[in-house]
Specification:
binds iron/sulfur cluster, Lambda Exonuclease, Chain A, 4-stranded mixed sheet, two-stranded antiparallel ribbon
Length: 242
């Protein structure tokens, strides 16, 4: 290699480097696996976890049968969510899951009670922070989940931390917001009735080994990027769903 006098050295700029750069899919897979193991993403959550009765019941049925492993995009979404929650949880905070009517509750963070337990949910989103004050910034699913935890944990208060990963889409980003929500006891009860209805659908499906009809037990946006999309499409097209 030729010696270059320091005085003659010029700073390298983009396009002048001669290094070789090749994709390393093996390392990519390895890192995804480390992260999936770290956050226990491939382990089946308690089948009767509250979240099971919020999202698609057909998917929950397939998950229970462990039909297909998560896609790479699903893994990345889980990893981002769990990673942020893990980073934000204060040290030495542990919670024991609680159960009501066969539904298990484990909020993201539960601070020990002063009078009541303090429940905290940590959510991340790619939506813009500029609409944070709009009520629609809090998704229906987040609300259903928090209302369900309120019922199980006998409270009507919930803290919600939202991390806007892209801020308001102009630097600086990301941004973090925190709100305290106080629910009406009637909405807690109405939501609970809905959760028990969803539970009955899934319980029956697991008991009879007949999946809940695709697209009837979810919001259609859930199908986008769902690992069972193809399966639901084919089974529906072939009339094999009931
Ligand atoms: S594709 Fe849609 S209906 Fe089928 S499991 Fe996924 S979310 Fe549910």
């Amino acid at each position: 290699m030729a010696y270059i006098e320091p005085a003659l050295a010029i700073p390298l700029r983009k396009g002048h480097y001669t290094m070789e750069r090749v994709e390393n899919p093996e390392l990519q897979r390895q890192v995804l696996k480390w992260l999936a193991d770290k956050y226990k993403i491939l382990e089946l959550r308690a089948p009767n976890h509250l979240s099971t009765y919020i999202y698609c019941r057909t998917k929950a049925f397939f998950d229970h049968k462990q039909a297909i492993e998560p896609t790479e995009s699903e893994l990345m979404l889980f990893i981002t969510g769990y990673g942020l929650q893990y980073t934000l949880t204060p040290p030495d905070i542990e919670d024991s899951p609680k159960e009501l009517d066969g539904v298990v509750s484990s909020p993201d963070i539960v601070l020990p009670p002063i009078i009541l337990e303090q429940l905290i949910e940590v959510k991340s989103t790619r939506r813009s922070a500029k609409n944070h004050s709009d009520d629609k910034a809090v998704s229906d699913f987040w609300l259903q989940y928090m209302l369900g935890n309120c019922k199980i944990r006998d409270t009507n208060k919930y803290d919600l931390v939202i991390i806007y990963l892209m801020g308001n889409y102009s630097p600086p980003f990301p941004q973090l917001y925190a709100d305290t929500l106080t629910f009406d006891f009637e909405e807690i009860e109405l939501n609970w009735a809905m959760i028990l209805e969803h539970k009955a659908v899934l319980d029956k499906a697991l008991e009879t080994d007949i999946m809940p009809t695709p697209y009837e037990h979810c919001e259609l946006w859930e199908c986008k990027g769902c690992r069972y999309n193809m399966m639901c499409e084919v089974l529906t097209r072939e009339g094999l769903t009931t």
